[in-house]
């Protein structure tokens, strides 16, 4: 009997519900509410189909392959003429199932060639104001001749190979087809003029000091193999200067000859330390290998300054470096360098954290650089995998922030008198954490930077934030006078100005870097913040961290795509995050939520207007209506004061007998006894879907926070109603009380509406 009655009621309510929806749909047939653009639809159209190379789980598939390029190089630096000479032997291994007719080699320095196309794709017109150096560069000086001179391209037997240079890419014709599993060895000889990176910008070059000496940070200095893989074929998209690099892994054996008084370091193990270090320097280095708390200076500031006062050495030394499995090679050299190092324990192994800087970097650099390197290795290893290399070097180069395997260039220079502001100090520590962090993304988790800037910059910016907070905790002296490390990116609220900005100048994260506006916010800030929100607010740390580590470890020393990341995060967590990827990565929508209304309801046994309307509409007579629990809105025509704060089972007899019939006395005693019922209408004028985090404050001063998953928006993207029952009266409701969701307008987030005064404050901001 009871079962039949319940069935009738539920059928009636279902039909009432669908009637209401139908009516709404007829009144407002909005195309955007159509299922095809539902924000929770699966990402099948955007994602490529999984295959034997890349699995649907986001892991490398059973047939996953990657190419290999091994290099042997002899490099000579002509310091006086800032010119570089190189000879390399590349052994290229074709692990793909495809037969190759030619190879593509990257000639990145050709971006600085006289006939470079880079200046010709700038359509911004005349700049209204320029620095003298910029003006001179644009209008007065002849273009710098910094492209590669390719002198020879030879096969193993010394026969010339046919090649063709298309701007920054060189196609080398293979004498015979390169089949699966086979390798091809060839030589390239080249030279080029090194640019002044302080004057002309750029990721490598030299800085000229007033004493006549220079410091070199050298990268993209050799013709580098392009990537060939299952998603791009040859990644031979031209280098215009912004989108970085895509490179295969391989072994590097590099001999670099520089003036004998230079200090040099680079990617790989120094295999002839005894030939290039003095006895004193060797002894200091051995001491540094045992120092875990503080760096040990290997070449002192005094020693560097003494060398800088003399004319440069005419004799040379050759530094030999060997790296086992890296995607690139960078190095630095100068007679003006100070160097220090300390050991860091990561995963049971001792890693050397190293800093190299001209005296101009002190006193800041001797104090914080090596410690920032050490903190980076610890934090990133915790979030991803144990750092696999034996060292990580931070080099101070003016205005630079650039990364290579085991070595990176970083800015942060005190004034001439040695003073520095907090801005310079935290800028320096942050850039070191960021660039050393790039060892993980993209040097080891080797994504395609040319195509997807966010895959290394966004992931790296996210872990950078975690490491910065660790830095503040583990080295309290670094944040003297502050509660926490002042991270520039990471917290949700910091991305609001960008998200709320002019839509004409915002591109989705899933865009090629070259084609985006506001590059820093697009490729660093927004994805970094999105991942922080995903971790703190959507997934929680445990699920996020496990999934993020799974991605990092699955793709360590491999080439992941965006889908591999998106899929792994879902695969390892049992969370459908398609809505999150869609909103944050594929659109430029922003989050804006607000409280539209809050209504109080009480329980009544008297038929209310909603039931009367339904009866009339469906022609149902009273005999077919069982006793219901009627919800009556305060202030409505059904409402009277006597309903306020009543116990529901005292008001509705049928409810009381239902409870008596179906529950034991102890079960009934354990039941809640709400007297206040609230309906909170939340509106979402912003397009982005996010969880609703809502804080209720009760009359007795206590409060409670409830998080509704983003799926609450799955059937209505504009407005939802929350129902909340309580034994205590609610006096205040706030959406997103801790500013976790990057809500662009918080003036509508509070009920009762925040006072006019605070609105005025917000406008002033
Ligand atoms: Zn970066």
Automatic annotation (TrEMBL):
<dbReference type="GO" id="GO:0008237">
    <property type="term" value="F:metallopeptidase activity"/>
</dbReference>
<dbReference type="GO" id="GO:0008270">
    <property type="term" value="F:zinc ion binding"/>
</dbReference>
<feature type="domain" description="Peptidase M1 membrane alanine aminopeptidase">
    <location>
        <begin position="383"/>
        <end position="584"/>
    </location>
</feature>
<keyword id="KW-0732">Signal</keyword>
<dbReference type="InterPro" id="IPR014782">
    <property type="entry name" value="Peptidase_M1_dom"/>
</dbReference>
<dbReference type="InterPro" id="IPR042097">
    <property type="entry name" value="Aminopeptidase_N-like_N_sf"/>
</dbReference>
<dbReference type="Pfam" id="PF01433">
    <property type="entry name" value="Peptidase_M1"/>
</dbReference>
<feature type="signal peptide">
    <location>
        <begin position="1"/>
        <end position="20"/>
    </location>
</feature>
<dbReference type="InterPro" id="IPR027268">
    <property type="entry name" value="Peptidase_M4/M1_CTD_sf"/>
</dbReference>
<protein>
    <submittedName>
        <fullName>Peptidase M1-like protein</fullName>
    </submittedName>
</protein>
């Amino acid at each position: 009997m009871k079962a039949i009655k319940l069935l009738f009621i539920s059928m009636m309510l279902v039909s009432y519900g669908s009637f209401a929806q139908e009516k709404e749909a007829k009144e407002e047939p909005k195309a955007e509410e159509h299922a095809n653009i539902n924000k929770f639809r699966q990402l099948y159209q955007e994602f490529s189909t999984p295959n034997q190379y890349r699995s649907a789980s986001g892991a490398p598939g059973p047939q996953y392959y990657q190419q290999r390029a091994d290099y042997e190089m002899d490099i000579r630096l002509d310091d006086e003429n800032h010119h570089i000479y190189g000879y390399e032997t590349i052994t290229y291994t074709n692990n793909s199932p495809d037969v190759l007719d030619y190879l593509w080699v990257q000639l990145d320095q050709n971006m600085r060639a006289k006939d470079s196309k880079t200046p010709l794709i700038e359509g911004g017109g005349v700049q209204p104001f320029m620095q003298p150096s910029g003006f001179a560069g644009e209008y007065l000086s002849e273009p710098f001749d910094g492209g590669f001179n390719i002198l020879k391209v030879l096969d193993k037997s010394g026969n010339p190979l046919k090649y063709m240079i298309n701007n920054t890419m060189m196609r080398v014709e293979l004498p015979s087809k390169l089949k699966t599993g086979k390798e091809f060895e060839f030589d390239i000889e080249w030279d080029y003029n090194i640019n002044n990176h302080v004057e002309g910008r750029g990721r490598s070059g030299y800085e000229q000091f007033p004493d006549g000496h220079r410091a070199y940070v050298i990268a993209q200095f050799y013709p580098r193999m392009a990537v060939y893989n299952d998603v791009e074929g040859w990644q031979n998209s031209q280098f215009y200067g912004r989108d970085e690099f895509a490179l295969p892994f391989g072994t590097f054996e590099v001999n670099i000859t520089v003036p004998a008084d230079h200090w040099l370091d680079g990617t790989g193990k120094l295999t002839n330390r005894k030939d290039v270090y003095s006895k004193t320097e060797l002894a200091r280095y051995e001491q540094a290998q045992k120092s875990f708390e503080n760096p040990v200076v290997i070449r002192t500031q005094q020693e560097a300054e003494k060398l800088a006062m003399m004319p440069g050495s005419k004799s040379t030394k050759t530094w030999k470096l060997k790296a086992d499995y890296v995607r690139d090679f960078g190095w630095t050299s100068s007679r003006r360098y100070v160097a220090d190092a300390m050991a860091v324990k990561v995963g049971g192994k001792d890693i050397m954290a190293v800093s190299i800087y001209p005296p101009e970097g002190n006193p800041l650099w001797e104090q914080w650089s090596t410690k920032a390197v050490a903190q980076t290795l610890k934090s990133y290893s915790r979030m991803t995998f144990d750092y696999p290399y034996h060292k990580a070097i931070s080099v101070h180069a003016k205005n630079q922030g650039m990364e290579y395997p085991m070595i990176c260039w970083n800015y942060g220079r005190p004034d001439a008198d040695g003073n520095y502001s907090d801005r310079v100090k935290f800028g320096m520590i942050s850039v070191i954490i960021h660039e050393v962090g790039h060892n993980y993304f993209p040097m080891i988790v080797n994504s395609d930077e040319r195509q997807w800037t966010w895959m290394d910059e966004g992931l790296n910016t996210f872990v950078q934030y975690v490491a910065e907070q660790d830095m503040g905790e583990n080295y309290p002296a670094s944040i003297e006078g502050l509660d926490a490390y002042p991270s520039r990116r990471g917290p949700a609220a910091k991305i609001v100005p960008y998200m709320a900005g002019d839509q004409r100048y915002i591109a989705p994260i899933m865009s090629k870097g070259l084609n985006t506006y506001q590059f820093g916010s697009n490729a660093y800030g927004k994805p970094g913040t999105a991942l922080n929100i995903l971790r703190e607010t959507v997934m929680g740390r445990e699920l996020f961290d496990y999934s993020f580590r799974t991605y990092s470890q699955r793709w360590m020393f491999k080439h992941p795509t965006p889908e591999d990341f998106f899929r792994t995060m879902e695969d390892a967590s049992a969370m459908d995050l398609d809505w999150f990827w869609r909103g944050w990565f594929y659109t430029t929508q922003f989050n804006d939520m607000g409280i539209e209304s809050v209504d109080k309801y009480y329980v009544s046994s008297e038929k209310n207007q909603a039931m009367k309307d339904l009866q009339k509409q469906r022609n149902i007579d009273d005999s077919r209506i069982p006793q219901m629990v009627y919800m009556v809105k305060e202030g409505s025509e059904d409402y009277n004061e006597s309903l306020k704060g009543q116990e529901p089972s005292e008001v509705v007899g049928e409810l009381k007998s239902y409870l008596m019939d179906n529950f034991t006395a102890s079960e009934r005693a354990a039941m809640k006894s709400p007297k206040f019922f609230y309906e909170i209408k939340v509106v979402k004028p912003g397009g982005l879907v996010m969880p609703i985090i809502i804080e209720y404050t009760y009359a007795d001063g206590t409060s409670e926070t409830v998080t509704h998953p983003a799926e609450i928006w799955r059937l209505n993207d504009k407005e939802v109603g929350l129902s909340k029952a309580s034994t205590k009266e609610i006096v205040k409701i706030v959406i997103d009380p801790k500013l976790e969701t990057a809500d662009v307008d918080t003036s509508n987030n509070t009920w009762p509406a925040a006072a006019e005064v605070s609105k005025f404050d917000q406008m002033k901001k």
